[in-house]
Design goal:
It is built from 30 helices and six strands. With 756 residues, the protein is mainly alpha-helical. The strands form two sheets. The protein has a four-stranded antiparallel beta sheet. Strands 3-4 form a two-stranded antiparallel ribbon. A hairpin with a 4-residue loop joins β3 (261-264) and β4.
Length: 756
């Protein structure tokens, strides 16, 4: 690839990014799009009503950029939790380290690489048509003393990266401890999840749990909550939710619009019936099923060998979670419980003996997915090599000879195709994590994040690098595997041009798509076209850490490995991190909600990924210096690798335990503080019902209470009240008729408001 092809790709992507930024600044001002760009503030009723038209709505502005820039870490912590702050700190670290790298590599190494051969002033006129290889370390002849500059740059980058990593690790660890010390009592700090409860013919599982913990934890045991198999109740809940949506839809139509339909033989024949009456009868059928499904006998038969056990103090719960409860490791397995809203209930019914088998299945599935993904990667690499395209597709010879077509195909199209294939991977990894048996949504997302990191590093870095050599010299590598390290050292600088275009396409396009919220925007437009309302409520999404963190770490890996070898990647990468810092701060404040939090446990993953990138950079540099016949420089890479490993071990010993469990000192001090303030007694009284399955929680609302609730609904929170009403709790006391009455009254109120 030459400079012209790179500039074509950069021009297309930067122009699209600027266009999307301007388009976003206009779309976010339209009241009909508030549910797309401010769902969080709508749910929290923090958005001011703006119905009057003004010309300012049609003019792009940068006010949102200033608001995102001025937002403090305390605001992010309060709005979105510690995980969001960790994600933002990744961009802060990346801007700092790659800013240092860009200053050093662009102004020192880039001129050294370009002027290594015979150079004349007139050569500047031919830069656009020359290959990008002249700006890489490949342009330096073997044994040249100019390579000392690259050794010095690598030492500086490694030292700066380790210093910044230590600062970030310490900062986030202090934030984690501060959040814990300032928090109110939370159920997950006092509760453990117990699985593998032994089954007895004489006693029920609940009696077994109570007898065990009262015997071995007599002073600290508080209560327990058994886990039930609620599959049938969950099915009834899903049916009720579908009926709810249908009733809302038909209730919003008048009698003329709501045409009667046949109810017999798949809706093709039989007597005609009003759709509203039809779904009312279906609701009554669900009610009868719910009455049968929630009898005491039915619940007792669905008891599972798992329970949430609560203690009177945090230190007692932590000790019980970490200590092995039985000599048989498959019985009385304990771990700290997730937050009640974070519990992934469907996985609690998985037998403990299946967990290891599920992990093996997921591992094999991930490996198989990696091999399948090799096909599009090899195809993309074929597109980036124009000579091989002409050889395999001779009928495209005339098209490929066109200047713009060749630049577009080699500089833009490969990274676009690869990015389209990558969109299918995060949902698959989330599915794998669910199969693996994660007991919390945050744990499932963290597990998917780790899988995505491994997948991205292997398939988007190693496979891209190796496929570049396999396409040209596959027989050489197979016949002589010892040549693979040398091939890697030779191919990374060559593939740096592809990685540069990949950052342009994948990075900038993903930032634009994230800002515009394309899928939500399209859904909102379609709904507005078919609905009379000018505002459509949408659910508030949670942040996709499993998708974004691996992407940012992959770009960091590309930046480290190519910084010394091919410095042209650094300005493009630095611009990406700068835009991402602003855009994601804006999204965290306005779009995503704070549903559950791991307490900053993503940072050790980020730290380890960065250390891996540093060590891989040093290993590749060792191979490059060997290829360049500069053995002294290769020898100097060895102490750098050892230093990076020792630094990682020091950080692990110094900080990692803070992210695993809180220390006894902190837990005991916090317990004493809550006990002295009197908060602990009030909290323990309500702890019993925190971990009851949502479908089994009772709803006790009388008609008078329903009337008061409906009258309290205002224009701003009408839809929010309807969504937040606990429809998922309707089954325990079979209050479907009461909820249907509430729904009818709410919709009647909406119709009166619209008519006014």
């Amino acid at each position: 690839m030459n400079i012209a092809a790179l500039m074509t790709s950069a021009g297309i992507n930067i122009a699209l990014c600027i266009l999307f930024l301007c388009l976003y600044s206009i779309l976010r001002k339209q009241p009909s799009n508030f549910s797309v760009y401010f769902p969080r503030k709508l749910a929290e009723e923090q958005l001011k009503k703006q119905d009057s038209f003004s010309l300012d709505r049609l003019i792009p502005s940068a006010g949102w950029i200033m608001k995102a820039w001025e937002t403090s870490e305390e605001d992010i912590l309060a709005y979105a939790g510690l995980d969001a702050l960790v994600f933002i700190r990744i961009f802060v670290f990346s801007i700092r380290i790659f800013g240092i790298s860009a200053l050093l590599c662009i102004f020192v190494l880039l001129p050294i690489n370009y002027t290594s051969a015979k150079f004349q002033p007139g050569d500047f006129s031919r830069i656009a048509s020359e290959s990008l290889d002249i700006f890489t370390i490949l342009h330096i002849p073997g044994g040249s003393k100019r390579l000392w500059a690259h050794v010095f740059a690598l030492y500086v980058i490694t030292g700066a990266a380790c210093f910044l990593l230590y600062f970030e690790y310490k900062h986030i660890a202090e934030r984690r401890l501060a959040v814990f010390n300032n928090s109110l009592p939370r159920p997950n700090h006092f509760t453990i999840l117990v699985r593998g409860i032994p089954i007895s013919d004489k006693n029920s599982l609940s009696d077994t749990v109570e007898r065990f913990f009262t015997q071995y934890y007599p002073l600290t045991y508080h209560s327990h909550q058994m886990i039930y198999r609620t599959g049938r109740v969950q099915a009834l809940m899903d049916d009720a939710e579908k009926i709810y949506k249908k009733i809302v839809h038909f209730k919003s139509q008048n009698n003329f619009q709501r045409q009667a339909h046949p109810v017999g033989c798949l809706g093709l024949c039989g007597r005609k019936m009003d759709p509203l009456d039809l779904y009312t009868k279906k609701l009554e059928l669900v009610e009868r099923n719910a009455r049968h499904g929630n009898s005491d006998h039915f619940q007792e038969a669905k008891e599972l060998p798992a329970a949430f056990v609560s203690f009177k103090s945090r230190i007692s719960a932590t000790v019980a979670a970490q200590v092995r409860q039985s000599s048989n490791p498959m019985l009385w397995m304990t771990e700290l419980a997730p937050e009640p809203e974070d519990v992934y209930w469907s996985n609690l019914s998985i037998p403990c003996r299946q967990l290891w088998f599920r992990k093996i299945v997921v591992l094999l599935g991930s490996i198989a997915l990696s091999f399948v993904f090799f096909i599009p990667v090899a195809f993309v690499q074929g597109l980036s090599q124009l000579d091989q395209l002409q050889r395999y597709f001779p009928f495209l010879h005339k098209v490929l000879r066109t200047k713009f077509a060749s630049q577009f195909i080699t500089g833009y199209l490969p990274s676009v195709i690869q990015q389209l294939f990558m969109y299918t991977i995060p949902p698959i990894m989330m599915f794998f994590s669910a199969i693996q048996g994660c007991v919390s949504y945050s744990g499932k997302k963290k597990s998917a994040c780790a899988k995505m990191i491994y997948f991205s590093v292997w398939n988007l870095f190693f496979v891209n690098v190796l496929s570049g050599s396999v396409i040209g010299q596959i027989n050489t590598i197979i016949s002589n595997p010892k040549e693979l390290p040398n091939r890697l050292a030779k191919q990374v600088p060559i593939q740096a041009t592809f990685f540069t275009t990949y950052i342009l396409t994948s990075g900038y396009a993903s930032l634009s798509s994230e800002l515009l919220q394309l899928f939500s925007l399209i859904s909102n437009v379609c709904t507005l076209c078919t609905s009379k309302s000018t505002r459509v409520a949408q659910s508030v999404p949670s942040f996709p850490y499993h998708q974004e963190i691996p992407k940012v770490l992959l770009f960091g890996l590309l930046g480290f490995t190519c910084s010394v070898l091919a410095p042209l990647i650094l300005p493009i990468l630095l611009l990406y991190f700068s835009l991402g810092f602003i855009i994601y701060r804006n999204q965290v404040l306005n779009v995503y909600c704070y549903k559950y939090d791991t307490g900053g446990q993503y940072w050790p993953v980020v730290h380890n990924g960065t250390i891996f990138s540093l060590i891989l950079t040093q290993v590749i540099a060792l191979g490059v210096f060997g290829v360049k016949k500069f053995p002294l420089a290769s020898g100097l890479m060895v102490p750098l690798i050892v230093f990076s490993l020792l630094f990682n071990e020091y950080c692990r010993q110094r900080f990692y335990h803070i992210f695993e469990n809180y220390s006894a000192e902190i837990l005991i001090d916090k317990d004493r503080e809550d006990d002295q303030s009197g908060q602990l007694d009030n909290f323990l009284e309500t702890l019993d019902s925190k971990y009851l399955h949502p479908t089994l929680q009772p709803v006790e609302l009388s008609d008078s209470e329903n009337n008061k609730e409906v009258n309290a609904i205002s224009e701003g929170n009408l839809r929010t009240s309807m969504i937040n009403y606990p429809l998922f709790r309707i089954f325990h006391l079979s209050r479907l008729k009461e909820i249907y009455l509430w729904l009818s009254m709410t919709l009647s109120y909406q119709e009166r408001r619209v008519s006014k």
